[in-house]
Amino acid sequence: MHHAHINETETRLQQAKQDQQHIKNVCSRLNENNQIEWGRFFVSDQRKYMYCFIPKAACSSWKLTLLRLTGKNISFITNVHNGAHTDKVLKRAVHYNATERESHLKKYFKFMFVREPLERLVSAYLDKCFRDRSHNWLPRAIKRYFRSANDTGETSKHCRCIIAPCCGTTQ
To answer: In this predicted model, what pLDDT tens digit does every residue of 1-43 receive, in sequence order?
Structure first.
């Protein structure tokens, strides 16, 4: 029984390493300019973590949680996506120099949350096209954009940018 448990653990570890390598391979293919968006990383020197947020993948909930974990007054923050406010409480990796960021990447706990790509795309579409009235122009723009993208064969490239923003510089 004990040996079976060890073998199962080893199998899971091996699968996790393969999954990690697959993610690295996909991100390197999608990230044509090899630039990391350091503005997407929140860093806590006190708690020793780096959090990379991806829009439409629980980032609002996690930003609020991380804000609360600081123990600071956050009553003035009405929108966690307003960097002018959240950046007064949470520090972003972009505010560190390259040596410090490299050190954080080696020593700090790093995490991010992902979401099934099609579900994320549909959620963004519904959120921006139907729930947020300030984006009422968006459905027409999307139709116009993808019609022209189809004509030039650019559709798959644009979908990749929407689905995998952590790997490139597009949001």
So the answer is: 566 667 888 888 898 888 888 877 777 776 666 678 899 999 9
* pLDDT tens sequence across 126-152: 887 777 777 777 777 777 777 765 555
Q: How is the chain classified by DSSP, letter by letter?
A: -HHHHHHHHHHHHHHHHHHHHHHHHHHHHH-TT----GGGEEEETTTTEEEE--TTSSHHHHHHHHHHHT-S--TT-S-TT-HHHHTTTSEEGGGS-HHHHHHHHHHSEEEE----HHHHHHHHHHIIIII-GGGTTHHHHHHHHHHHHHHHT-HHHHHHHHH-GGGSS--
User: What is the reported pTM?
Assistant: 0.64
Tokens 């899971």 — which residue? 12
Domain residue spans of the chain: 37-114, 117-167
